[in-house]
Fold these 3 entries.
Entry 1:
Amino acid sequence: MTEKTDIKSLTREELLEAILALGEKPFRAGQIYSWIHEKLAGSFEEMTNLPRKLRETLEREYEYITLEPVEIQTSKLDGTQKYLFRLPDGLVIESVRMQYKYGSSVCISSQAGCRMGCRFCASTIGGLERSLRASEMLEQIYRIQQLSGQRVSHVVVMGTGEPLDNYDNLLRFLRLLTGEGGLHLSQRNITVSTCGIVPGILRLAREHLQITLALSLHAATQEKRCSLMPIAGKYELPQVLDACRVYFEETGRRVTFEYSLVGGVNDTKEDARQLARLAEPLYAHVNLIPVNPVTERKFTQPVKKDVDNFKNYLENCGINVTIRREMGRDIDGACGQLRKSYMEGRSQC
């Protein structure tokens, strides 16, 4: 049996070619694209201005990806919402919606599971099951927008998975999300996080997109970074920083260093001094993240005083730095925790 084409992952040009191949008029492609990416239709049947025969043909020839909400958690503290979605093949992924003064920001997953093995992250404990298609990344945003009734203004690809380990689908997703005829989100309102896949950073630089690249740095020396992030053994810190420099030069967009502060591991004054030396030449913004405790890893958050001292030292060195505001502390807010708890529950059934 021939595998159906995933219509939601097609660009406008590809969809036009497909519709013409069916013997339909060109304007039908625009109608279908609008139903998919503007009206966020849940099925071909909802596309009521299409002839029934065409809807039947589309149903027969194309796969229409939608995600099923399995669980939604809402924080009583700040309204942050965590979503667990079921993919068409039964795997589950998670996404988060955070409400800020500037709008609604959604953090999405790019893979079901992750193979990067970062020591402080719950997402990687079960390994990688598969990468997500462009449609499955888009669907997280589309369903959250429908379920919340709030237009999404910012997107962060920083949930489960390594986006640059899924490069082609990521790029297609970015084109669809920011192109005309859909949500048409500004590229400047999109952040893509990577743990340091050097070839992917260099490829992304050549695309000349205006998205923000966030490097999951987490340590300012090669030795310490290797102890926290196995991928650092493949792409050493000088290589990663060189790739970030290329990204900055090619796009004019400064890189963000994501730095998870782990109590007693990477939160000393010397760590701050070394981090400042790395950030200064790149004009990098540093985002400090007091680590979410992960039971299996036995990592703990630094005390508030140590976090503040770390931040103050960087600022005194002229580094632009923020402390990530903790959102959804009363729910499974940390990356991978909701998915992990759901899978553990299923395994006990």
Entry 2:
Amino acid sequence: METVTLKDVKYEFKNKYHIVRALDGVSYVFERGKFYAVAGRSGSGKTTLLSMIAGLANPASGAVFLGETDIAGIDRDRYRLEHVSVIYQNLNLFPLLTALENVMFPLEYRKVPKDEARRIAEEKLSSVGIDETMHSRLPSMLSGGERQRVAIARALANKTEFILADEPTGNLDTENSLNIVLLLKNLARTENVCVIVVTHDPAVAEQADVALRIHDGTLEE
């Protein structure tokens, strides 16, 4: 089973006043088929952890492995394209593309034929509860919960083994938050993907297969 493993990962940065040790020797194995929630106060290192797994930042020391391969030796763009999808808090949907076109975009970027890209995008939108009547709508014409579902469908369409979500329920009401969390939890099982969500919401952590917390740069269950 493919895993992402952090081995003694350390990362620090300097803010206006002092050096912040965001990760201080973090070691952990993330497995496919599980839904992980990572909680912690603001500035505790949650987003830094996702950045390490996504290959968007390099550890000061330690390493991140995909299976047995240190991702430091992998082309990062290809790594994210083929193995890791990131759902950002602001979603990063293209405002001038429809819901369907947004989901098709990464497939067409990978040179998937347009008809096949459309078929996959329609299938993934359906799997997250976006019906055909919404496929032609621009993001501005969708609700917050619907935009979140489009972003999740885009991540699924890329067929990566790991989906990373940064505060995916931060801008949603309670009902939509629960729906999104249950959707991600179900996808971990049905699609055999590893879903890692960073959150400050205790209700999200309650639904996780594994609940983790970052405190003082360390990660603990």
Entry 3:
Amino acid sequence: MEPGKGVIFNIQKFCVNDGPGIRTTVFFKGCPLRCIWCHNPESNQAKKEIFFDAKKCIGCGACLKTCEKCLHQIGSEGEHLYDREQCVACGVCAENCVAGALEQVGEDKTVEEILAEVKKDEVFYQTSGGGMTVSGGEPLAQFAFVKELLKRAKEEGLHTCMETCGYTTEEKIREIAPLVDLFLFDYKETDAKRHEEYTGVSNEQILKNLFLLDELGVKTILRCPIIPTLNDRDDHFAGIAATANQLKNVQEIHIEPYHPLGSGKSEMLGKEYRLKGLTFPEESTVTEWIAKIQAQTEITVKKA
């Protein structure tokens, strides 16, 4: 990461599921969790990476000619060999890949560059009640940069949302809270042991931070990924409702059904995907999940 810049892997416009109104969502690279169902595995590492889609490769050899370290080779049977271990993700190979088989994931951007892009759609925010959402990865993993971005966004009069896993210090939560109008707060698993098994970290600090935000009077929406065979359990549904019922400033509960997008992305990163073969839940199943939670709370529960 260059000084004064953040590592961003996407700036997505016209988002309607990342907070109220029409929004621009800024996706930060880097996350302290390793959720086994993550649909954005390219967000795990803070460093830049390279997607390689072997299905798109036409064997033109452009990457072989442009990679200074000769990390791209053609095997004896014509297969594309790529040495990821030595790669620094400079992006030169991706720039010269005419087939789009290679793609650099992650860019260094300044606050000014991001805000300039976000403000292009300011008229849509004004008419829809939208604004800017920071997501990831985990935006709080680049704390100083996201704090400055949110500060500048507020100075520009933008409504701000943050999607967060909540795994950070209480001090950082207190610092960032005044700059965020609405937190989209992940609630991944009620059972502490399962939470650590599925995400790599305990949920103890996460829950402390959720209730701290509530004490500070900050609005939240609980974002609950539901993964068949893992957390689609009645006791977890009861835990979601019970937690929401204790919060004074929770606005809604959003159910996020499992999405297998992470499987293909993991393959393009040369990583193993532990839930390979798991697919979308049936719509009737999602409706049943929502009904079970809604029966235990007066807070609106809906599909994200």
